[in-house]
Amino acid sequence: MTTGLTAEQARVRAQAQAEGRKAHRRHVWMVVLGRILIYGLILVGSAVYIFPFLFMLSTSLKLLKQIYVWPPQMIPNPFTLDNYIKGWSVLPTTTFYKNTIFITTLNIVGTVLSSTLVAYGFARLRFPGRNVLFVVLLATMMLPGQVTMIPLYIGFAQLHWVGTFKPLIVPAFFANAFNVFLLRQFLMTIPRELDDAAKIDGCGYIRTLVSIILPLMLPAMGVVAIFTFTGSWNDFMGPLIYLRNTEQFTVALGLRYFQQQTDQHIGRLMAMAIVALLPQIVVFFFAQKQMVQGVTLTGIKG
């Protein structure tokens, strides 16, 4: 029995190998072209989203006579920080920042604390009507803010809270439906055996929450804190409705007031917009990993 290949068999085998190499090369090229297309679309999308910010930054660094030059120059020549210096001093911007930091900090503390407690109750405690109450809580997410705006204003007015920071802070200590849902989803992934082991060691519900559950909830709590920071920092409607005194204005409301006062100087307006946006950019760069990890671990994956 011969083990060698005939000339025809060798030719067929060589042809098959050549076809296999061609198919492999085609596959490699398809993969490369697919990645180029994907990265190209990402770059185009990123450019579309980042262009307004770059335009704001460029305008804030220009002299007034450079702003209206056509065609526009993206790179200022010369650079100037005069818009930032004079824009900051036109209005009590430092006070606006202090007010915003104060309100945002208390909102973060109140939201994280109250949402954690409510989510823990829905996820780990068994009581009659738990599921019904949770559905009712989720149903409140379907109510647009315009529906509750007037009743809330009437209630706060009767409490004589209009003109103070209380309407912007106190509601944060009564939990938020979306945050409760987010934290509850995360708590459902934590094994109940940990609660049972803590109960055997003599821990009550509060001790179990503080010593066992909270350290495991930090990623999800970080997401809630980031969402709350963004929403509170950018809140315009709330301060517009409830604040009366300029000394109480937040950054978002102060930026609108600044626009009314310096309508003819777009450079200073862009400078103040950059200043208002800067804390969010810093938080994004330092907390994006925490945010992605927390959202992924809650089970909300599309």
What is the topological layout?
Blueprint (H helix, E strand, L loop, with lengths): L6 H54 L3 H4 L14 H9 L2 H32 L5 H10 L5 H14 L7 H4 L7 H11 L5 H8 L4 H30 L2 H6 L8 H11 L4 H32 L5
Helix pairs in contact: 1-13, 3-13, 4-8, 4-10, 8-10, 10-13, 12-13
Characterize the structure shown:
By secondary structure, the protein is mainly alpha-helical. Helix content is 75%, strand content 0%. Helix 3 (82-90) packs across helix 13, helix 4 packs antiparallel against helix 10 and helix 10 packs antiparallel against helix 13. The longest helix is centred in the N-terminal third of the chain and has 54 residues, at 7-60. The mean pLDDT is 83.
Quick tags:
302 residues; 0% strand; mainly alpha; MetI-like fold; flat
Structure described in brief:
By secondary structure, the chain is mostly helical.
At the third CATH level, what is the topology name of the largest domain?
MetI-like fold
CATH superfamily of the largest domain: MetI-like
The percentage of residues in β strands lies in under 5%
| Shape descriptor | flat
Note the main sheet. none
What structural class do you assign from the helix and strand content?
A: mainly alpha
Q: Report mean pLDDT, rounded to a whole number.
A: 83
Query: How many beta-strand elements?
Result: 0
